[in-house]
Amino acid sequence: MDKILKFVIYRLPVIAFFLRRVRDKINNSRKPTQTEFGFLLKGNKMMEAGNFEVEETRLIRKLICKIDVFINIGANIGYYCCFALHSEKKTIAFEPLPENLKFLYQNIEFNRWGSRIEIHPVALSERIGITKLYGMGTGASLIEGWAGNSKYYYHNVPVNTLDNIISNRFLEDNILIMIDVEGAEYGVLKGAINLIKREKRPIWFIEISIAEHQPVGRKINSDLLDTFELFWNSGYRSVVADSSLREINYSDIKKIVDNQEDT
User: Fold this and answer.
1) Where are the alpha helices (DSSP H) in the chain?
2) What is the Cα–Cα distance from 165 to 227, expressed in whole angstroms?
């Protein structure tokens, strides 16, 4: 029965859409949670409880203290934006998924931060136009087949480039850019070359999947080495985003690419 149900949902996106709408209505009926971090939040129980990406959260909170502008690409329901706004930092959020935007808007309203955040309901890549966003929630991706997302369940969303939108803004500010776009980060970065090469370099905090969640038939991220070289060729250093802050070098990534596995 379970196999039949999965097959029906996979083949009939209308059913999947209906089930997700029911879930979203239940979530929408809940009151926001007063988090341990000092702000209200609704939309993800792990985020509300302070159990979401604990190590990443600690690092982001530490970095936010050192910057003037926080740019969150793949903002989801606004979890990381809330830390920046709570610290009175100028915040820019990019989030294309309608279901996530509902919660993002609510979380900003709950905390009365509407005048301090700039929200762009678009996806980012190396081009402008319209594209397909597959899946839902924290796993939604521009990559077809990402994390097992059905190719039959997607939203058409507008897409733009980061260079187009940020252009020559914040030239003298310290900027932290967080990218969590489920496998599509290389496209985002190709659309942000001018920002990468700025004289006053931003700090980039990027989730880059190596082997996890890849589409069927792909062992590792096919853009892995190119992604790191975009930064290395522009004079950046890269480190692991955990308490060790261990530096990542060319030989580390080349070994993964050559072996076709996360070593």
Assistant:
1) 2-11, 13-29, 45-49, 54-64, 79-86, 98-110, 162-166, 185-190, 193-196, 224-232, 250-259
2) 21
Structure tokens at 218: 């792909």
pLDDT < 50: residue spans in the chain: 1-3, 6-7, 9-10
Q: Tell me which architecture the domain covering 33-222 has in CATH.
A: 3-Layer(aba) Sandwich (3.40)
Domain ranges of the chain: 1-30, 33-222
| Cα(23)–Cα(203) distance, integer angstroms | 36
Q: Which of 247, 172, 262 is nearest to 213 (CA)?
A: 262
Q: What is the pLDDT of residue 250?
A: 96
- What's the distance, CA 222 to chain centroid? 19
72: left (phi over 0), alpha (psi -120 to 50) or beta: beta
Tell me: the pLDDT tens digits for 54-83?
999 999 999 999 999 999 999 999 999 999
Nearest-CA neighbor of 137 among 37, 52, 57, 221? 52
Cβ(73)–Cβ(179) below 8 Å: yes
How high is the pLDDT of residue 144? 96
